[in-house]
Amino acid sequence: MEQLNFITNILGIKDKNIIILDYLDSGTHKEIIAKLDYPTPKCHSCHGQMAKYDFQKESKIPYLECAGYKTLIRLRKRRFRCKVCGKMAVSETSLVKKNHQIATIVKQKITQKLIEKVPMTSIAESLSVSTSTVIRQLHKFKFKTNLNYLPEHMNWDEYGFKKGKMSFIAQDYDTRKIVAILDGRTQATIRNHFLRYSKQVRSCVKVITMDMFSPYYDIARKLFPNAKIVLDRFHIVQHLSRAMNRIRIQIMNQFDRRSHEYKALKRYWKLIQQDSRKLSDKRFYRPIFRSHLANKEVLEKLLSYSQELRQHYDLYQLLLFHFQEKQTDHFFSLIEETISSVNPIFQTVFKTFLKDKDKIMNALELPYSNAKLEATNNLIKVIKRNAFGFRNFDNFKTRILIALNIKKERTNLVLSRL
Ligand SMILES: [Zn+2]
């Protein structure tokens, strides 16, 4: 008996009416046999005196893991029968809500893991519940749109949440909070959403940053009369570095797949992308080269494989440098000088840069940093990678809102409300 009491404590079962009868260790998991019983209550419907009846067939309640083992509680609940009207009642407990199969504490754990950005399949797996249980818990998060407020600086972007489906995301640039996630990115979808705000609220928006290939310029100007439309630096640099990456891949594919050059270009792609000023001098052992080399030395070897790679790398680094140092004139004259002789991949990007020259210059004048947007981008990438359940747009949306709009310190509050 002592030991069984000890189990209740360990499991954190607070309901004193739950008595543990037995404990089975099957090797792979643990089972706790328990009963729920308490003095006869009054009848719910006629307030007459009830009497103890039998015990209900046991319900199997998956519980939190105990010392690394999956744990199942087999609970038999006392039934009562009214002496006056004959109605039956089942005993109730805080361990599981009425008519529920999942323990309250397990639900809280699911909520906590959703906030911690754990993939939904992993949550289901680790807590021995179905993914639909996890999704049901996800749906308990409710986010309301505040129609009385819009941030001064918004960022607009789009993300594919499943194949061929894009969603539109507006974010507060300063706090990173999501202002809107829309299912679709058509002009009508965006207009209908923002027209729910009064013109006065919309007038508060001073800056909207967006990607350079954005089809949203016009609609943004119409909806937000006081906003300056600016390209954001994050995307400008991203276009440049993606182009560099594609050129590396093109050149890499000219080598045999088993060749040393191919393997090195594949393995050390990041060194080419990186700002050359940030390459470290520390030497490490590099299995591909069978020697200790610093990042700079590895890079030098990569560039020695191809004249074309070296030329584009140098150009790429120089453009990055001018951009970061806000030397707009140097940046654009370099583009104009080289556009006719570079790889077509660079040519395409350069053409867009020239076309949006004024907006790029706006971007350089604004004192905002890219770090925040980059963080959001990466976060959404992680959420998408763990995308089970996101055939449904609302699940995708809720997950992003949980990740970005719930602050860590509020977690406990949210938990206690669920
Ligand atoms: Zn009754």
Record keyword descriptors for this entry.
about 425 residues; alpha+beta; Nucleotidyltransferase, domain 5; 3 domains; five-stranded mixed β-sheet; 13 strands; elongated; binds zinc ion; ISL3 family transposase; Transposase_DDE
Word description of this protein:
This protein has 418 residues and is an alpha+beta fold. The protein has helices at 2-11, 104-115, 120-127, 131-138, 187-194, 199-202, 217-223, 233-252, 260-267, 269-273, 295-304, 307-324, 328-338, 344-355, 357-365, 371-385, 393-405, 411-417; strands at residues 18-25, 29-36, 50-55, 59-66, 69-82, 88-90, 153-162, 165-172, 178-183, 207-210, 228-231, 283-286, 291-294. It folds into three domains: 2-100, no CATH class; 153-232 and 368-417, Nucleotidyltransferase, domain 5 (2-Layer Sandwich), CATH 3.30.420; 234-365. Helix 2 packs antiparallel against helix 3 and helix 12 runs antiparallel to helix 13. The longest helix has 20 residues, at 233-252. The chain starts with a helix and ends with a helix. Mean pLDDT is 86; it is low at 409-418. The chain binds zinc ion (ZN). Zinc ion binds next to loops.
Sum this structure up briefly:
Helix content is 44%, strand content 21%. With 418 residues, the protein is an alpha+beta fold. Helix 7 (217-223) links the parallel strand 10 and strand 11.
Overall 3D form:
elongated
Total number of distinct structural domains: 3
Please give the alpha-carbon distance between the first and last residues: 34 Å
Structural class: alpha+beta
Major sheet, described briefly?
A: 6 strands, mixed
User: Number of helix segments?
Assistant: 18
- Report the radius of gyration as a whole number of Å: 30 Å
Mean pLDDT: 86
Small molecules bound: zinc ion
